[in-house]
């Protein structure tokens, strides 16, 4: 093999992973092409033998084949290949291509879109469409391209790009890799194509929160998938079930008997706890009490009640962290409400989890450790930054234990509205369980899609606890516990925020009787959470002063990272990007001027760098401090 061919093959292999604009610059650089002697028009690569054809010559030969029934074409090494049509697939409107040269023979099914007959191209797309599970926009885009008379090479680029990013192709490729137990690259785990996620969750048009979404775009998306793909779409539809509004009356009305029956066998054989949960949620809402339904519901209730949460939900939790971190880094959803990106992340995480469970990979500690090491920080910081516009959900809630509370609480809530005497029809368990459902307070924390939803009003007994704490004499950390904990669950009136700020201010920003550094940190962190959730800029300002007072104590106990995150948390109380930058820029800048050890200074620099990478507008207020600490860390 000559040098030119080796270079060409390597370069084309490299270029396929780069943006189209960059590739175009390379391909149009005549000086570069002439100097290297590389023939970049040989883009068609077939078979494991690395047989390559000049693209336009290959396409013209295919058109001849489709018209005349036979053609021939030379590959890059001038070897002649005969082209014929096979008889397979038997029911396909366009048959596979057979290539033969001497003893070498193979078939290809990837070039149907070159066919000169528009109607046959469209018919073939209908033939393969049900295995792709494409969304409405992607289907519309492919139909438009196939109906056009643009050059075959351009048609190939557009069609293969859309098909290559379809959920159906992604699942097929991932399942194939998992069956072979081959190692996986990041792009094989998390696509970065917006069209892929829109095929999973639909396109957002008018919705500002998850309630509106499932009443409008989400409902239309589920209806579209069911109408177009029927039972094949059920698993992907159930992956959307991360909020009670998924199973509202409009959505569950789409699950008719035929659709439910087609889903039973697949769900029973898949052995995926999340699929079991999601399907059970639907079955409970529509009151299905047949044996199959009861068995599925009972199985997931028992699993979430008694199972090892680490083993059951570990992979699902880490797949969410992985996907969301990739989407945060790519800024793919920056122009959309936060819930839309999280729904994409959760739906894809559910799909990954489903594939791994189907292939017997229920737990993979090495994979989870790799995700935590490489993506945990960006996930955590990115979701803290979301608090500016999406106030209530915190990244800590992505842990396996809280996911269990989220899912189990949803099922218990559905069971609780069924008359106690009738519950045996739906859940096979002991009488004590049915009469006294084991609710936990953590089941009432906001779910990952509820950050933009207004919290519910506070119960009277909780209000009394908060008032007693704030009315107590002195300024102990205990006096804030009721207020801080309640902020995660219920709506807090401005009077409480003003009272807390005044209590902090009147004490000279000092706490009495601090039992330990952990108690101090918990209080500061709790106040930061409360400030962010309630959008209280007043409380955030008082907290800034509090942290100045206690910096030395926290740094002495190696809590620099915690101190940084308290500031990022509190900054979520500022909805205006200008005010947010000013607050967090000041908070972090002050930390850079402290007398820190070299390792601490490096740690702080990398944290600030990570925050600025995800939100570059912060540079407007921290650039001076950033440059100084960067110099000190070289």
UniProtKB/TrEMBL annotation:
This is Uncharacterized protein. It comes from Pseudoalteromonas neustonica.
